[in-house]
Design brief:
alpha/beta, 4-stranded parallel beta sheet, 36% helix
Length: 534
């Protein structure tokens, strides 16, 4: 994927380095995934979010209604998904707590589902760190990186698996190959050579999806997240087939703010197009958000336009002049955190210091209306982490995902596929709206450079997925990417592949690209940079 030098991208054309699919892990070099499929896990998450939203909007007795949610998730006395109805309800109770921004309950002492509710039942941004949590009772204790012989083995005479094993870990037992796990070094040579594909590599899906190796095991063999390594991208969460990983939410507190009568303004990410139905436009979504109680709605693509202008000038002024060896885009929080970890202190300034689109939009809103409370609505889990940084707290009051917003609509009986109201939105250009897909950030910056500095050539590289992002950063650190503008996206596919999306990634990608094509203004005017942000 990566060359030893930057690719020269001429006059608006970006080199595509990915197939238009939604990846989560690789098998034999090809991306595989389960996202985009309506599974029981996605239904369970939506049901929990919806029930919590109903309580936040309408409950007269919040404690009792919260305690009752696990029984609504698993009614009757027959388990729906697990071997025990009691385990199902215990897991549902933990999901409810995380949906309210609370931490998981300890396993060694009794704690009510609503313990700590009074601290969480507020109209301010709130959740107890860490953001990403593994629900122990939901984890199936998957084995990771283990080779095992399946019943496909025919005990062939050639037994090439035995011949290629460098440690003598394979023997014939009862007419079939057997792998001694104590001797196995997990090189995979046996699997690669078996003519019957009879040797399976068992992996933990969450660990395979984590590009920074933050998934470890506890004493019982359950998944555990190393907070020192985690960058909160959420790819582990969407890759777990048992739904054992979840992030904490803020929509409960958001609804309380709306109910309180606060002036709450929505800042909607450009990836929103298509998320609530093929024909559901941003104009319809704005009207529906106002029906939910939001006072106004703005495009986060406005902040993306501001960022594109800033980084265009930054690239020309700093990189082309030789002051910086390269420039890293800054809009993806997980990519920025990773970059600062990987790069030396001397290279930390290569991460653009421009405001992320979320923060730039929020500051623009609050500049015009200091009383407004800004809610970022997007596909990204790590934006919740970004909004909790000390330097951002005063700008962004809440962060929720499209998945959580869908539950809020459902709780209030708003079906956008049968919704007639519309309100126009014209805050941004096609360049800023394109930030939502992979290569879109670099494309927007390049368009600005071509517009403002037509004689300047732009050298662009991009990486998707944290594993590839790390490789790109190491190459840049080694001096292999000098002169480049480097776009990094933690989620393969870009923002549309974030953990909080509602629809398949290819579908979301096409919707955003159409949104960009249909934009009346393609590139932000140069004087947009003169907006006086506080």
């Amino acid at each position: 994927m990566f060359g030893s030098v930057c690719k020269l991208i001429s006059k608006g054309d970006l080199i595509k380095r990915r197939k238009d699919i939604e990846p989560s892990q690789k098998k034999n070099g090809e991306w595989i995934c389960m996202r985009g499929i309506e599974t029981p896990i996605t239904k369970l998450r939506r049901q929990v979010f919806t029930e919590v939203a109903k309580v936040a909007f309408d409950s007269k007795n919040i404690n009792d209604d919260i305690e009752a949610i696990p029984y609504k998730i698993t009614p009757g006395d027959v388990p729906l998904y697990r071997e025990s109805i009691y385990r199902e309800r215990a897991i549902a109770a933990e999901r409810v707590r995380l949906a309210m921004g609370l931490s998981l309950r300890p396993e060694n002492r009794p704690v009510h589902v609503t313990s700590g509710l009074s601290e969480s039942n507020i109209s301010d941004k709130y959740y107890e760190p860490p953001l990403m949590q593994v629900i122990p009772s939901a984890c199936d204790m998957c084995e990771h990186n283990v080779y095992e012989v399946s019943n496909q083995c025919r005990g062939c005479v050639a037994h090439p698996c035995m011949e290629v094993c460098p440690k003598g870990a394979i023997s014939m037992v009862n007419g079939r190959s057997f792998i001694d796990k104590e001797k196995c070094i997990k090189c995979g040579k046996c699997k690669a050579i078996c003519p019957y594909d009879a040797i399976a590599k068992k992996v933990r899906p969450c660990a395979s999806a984590c590009g920074v190796n933050a998934i470890e095991s506890d004493e019982q063999g359950r998944a555990r997240i190393n907070e020192e390594k985690c960058v909160s991208c959420g790819q582990c969460m969407v890759s777990c087939p048992f739904g054992a990983i979840a992030d904490k939410s803020q929509f409960f507190q958001l609804i309380r703010a709306i109910k309180k009568g606060d002036k709450v303004v929505a800042a909607v990410a450009p990836a929103v197009v298509g998320q609530f139905g093929k024909d559901v436009t941003l104009w319809k979504i704005k009207a529906a958000l106002k029906d939910l109680g939001f006072s106004d709605v703005h495009e986060v693509a406005l902040g993306a336009d501001i960022g594109a202008i800033t980084e265009a000038h930054h690239y020309v002024d700093k990189v082309k002049s030789g002051e910086l060896p390269f420039l890293l885009t800054s809009c993806c929080p997980s990519w920025s955190v990773l970059a600062k970890r990987v790069l030396s202190e001397e290279l930390a300034e290569t991460v653009s210091n421009s405001l992320t689109p979320m923060v730039a939009t929020a500051r623009s809103i609050k500049q015009k209306d200091p009383e407004a409370r800004v809610v970022f609505i997007g596909p990204c889990a790590s934006k919740k982490l970004e909004a909790s940084r000390r330097s951002v707290r005063s700008d962004v009051d809440f962060v929720i995902t499209f998945e959580e917003l869908a539950a809020m609509f459902e709780a209030k009986g708003i079906d956008l596929t049968h919704y007639d109201k519309e309100e126009p939105v014209h805050d941004a250009t096609g360049a800023g709206r394109g930030y939502a897909v992979a290569t879109g950030v670099a494309a927007a910056i390049e368009k600005c450079i071509n517009e403002y500095y037509p004689d300047v050539d732009v050298f662009i590289e991009h990486a998707e997925g944290l594993s590839d992002c790390q490789k790109m950063l190491m190459l840049a650190k080694a001096g292999k990417k000098d002169g480049c503008l480097i776009e990094g996206m933690a989620c393969p596919g870009g923002c549309v592949a974030g953990a909080g999306t509602n629809i398949p990634i290819p579908q979301a990608t096409q919707a955003v690209k159409k949104f960009v094509r249909d934009s009346t203004v393609k590139v932000p005017p140069k004087d947009l940079e003169k907006i006086d942000l506080p």
